[in-house]
Every structure is written in structure tokens, then in C-alpha cells.
Amino acid sequence: xxxxxxxGSAIAAGIxxxxxxxxxRLLEEGVQPGLAVVLVGExxxxxxxxxxxxxxxxxxxxxxxxxxxxxxxPQRELVDLIRELNRDEAIHGILIQLPLPGHINEDAVIEAIxxxxxxxxxxxxxxxKLVLNQDGFIPxxxxxxxxxxxxxxxxxxxxxxxxxxxxxxxxxxLANLLFRKAxxxxxxxxxxxxxxxxxxxxxxxxxxxxxxxxxxxxxxxDMVKKGALVIDVGVNRVLDNTRKRGYRLVGDTDFSGIKEIxxxxxxxxxxxxxLTRAMLLWNTVESARKKAVKV
Length: 295
Fold this sequence. Notes:
By secondary structure, the chain is an alpha/beta fold. It has 10 helices and 11 strands. α1 runs parallel beside α10. The longest helix has 23 residues. The protein starts with a strand and ends with a helix. The mean pLDDT is 95.
């Protein structure tokens, strides 16, 4: 059996088209969605990611304000900047690129963002709304995972889902989304982590496996039920001297072994990643739309 290889870029392209249509409607009403992207320091991976997000905004017609600060920027200065962006009528979304330098408290910075501009979906207010199944911003990667499942026409109702990884960025919010009483939910969800005993036995029961633990080859072919859907959120650098960069990107699963057993599987790269970026655009436009309705 050969699994369907899920093309995350193609799914993301469809979402971007929808975003573009929404942007055009807002522009006709005199509203241009605006996203402020704040990068502190010069982490190469963060710079690459921020640059890609800015390109995404330009293609979608979203105004992007690129703010880059030195790595030694004091926390108070960063928080003051966020409060200024909260008051800026041209900015509908604020993205603080993580991780931040060690001297800055990430929780304090995230909490400084106005919840209605928290397009990453990490503010405690938005996380609380997610848990309570209320209207708020959904974190981009979990939202992207839901879009992948939706694109396959697969029902989560009554499905056994195993999420490997309990981070507040992916695992925890995704679990809440999948077991809530709502379309795209109503699943029976098991969340596994580093202290989980008999991981293979638990994963093997799943109709849908979501790997988000940040460790290569955590999920292998012998842990996957025939025909299961496997969504790999992990992005890990593995040394590879045959590559110009000296490394290659892999996920948290043994892709080569799993693709012979699973019904469908996401590759790394090209799976979940494009959806994460697309959902950031989605949230930014949604913020602008809500603001336009209130005016």
C-alpha cells in the first residue's frame, strides 16, 4: 500500500486565494489589513521565517510593517513597542517572532499584545476562548492541521486521535480543537508525551496520528495502523554532508517506513509548514474584517 502524500503547499494555495478575495473586498471598503512583524536578534532561522512571512503579506495585499530590534533590546522597550502597535489603527495583527532572547520573558511579551491583534493565537485570552469553544484566534499550526484533515474530506467525529507532543503551541490547543463539540471536532483524543508509557501501543490504535514532539523518527512504521492518517508537524535539522547547507530537514516520523502503511501522510518539508503561514494571513484578515464591522 502506498500512502497519499499530502501536498500542504496546494492546500495553502487554496487558502491564500480565499484570503486574497477577502482582502480585495476589504480594500473596496477602504480597509487594508496590516500585520506588524517584530524580530528581536539575528537568529538565522527566525530571519528566514520572518522574511517569508513578509513576502506572503505582499503577495496577498496585506500591509506589513517589518520591525527588527537588536538582540539586547530591553524587555520594557519591547513591551512599549507592542503597546504602541496596539494603538495603531493601521495594524490589525501583531506577530512577535519566537524564540526571544533569554533575558526577555516571552509570557509577559505575549500578554502585552491586545487579544484582538494576537494573530498567533497565543494570548491567554485567546487560549481561554479556544478551551471554552468561543470565538477567538486559533493558533496557526493547529488551525493548519485542521485544514489538512478537512481537505481530505475525513470526519473526526468518533475518530481515535493520538497527538504526540503537549506543547502550548501545537499539542495542547490541537487536543482542545479536536475534542470540542463543533465541526472538525468530536474526536476521542489521547495526548502522549515524554512520560507516556507504552507509546507504540497507544499510537497503534489511532485513526489519526499527529506528531509534534520535535524529535526525528519518534513515530515509526510499526507504530502505525494500516490506513491511518499521519500528520507530521515536526521540523528537525539532521546533518547531511551531501547537502550544500550541510543538513536536511526531517519531521518527527520515519516517512519512508510510514508511507508504505498509512492511508495518507504529510511530508517534511511541504506538509504542515505552508499551512501555518497561510493561517497567519487568514487570522490577520479576520482581525481586519472584525474591526471593519465594528466601525
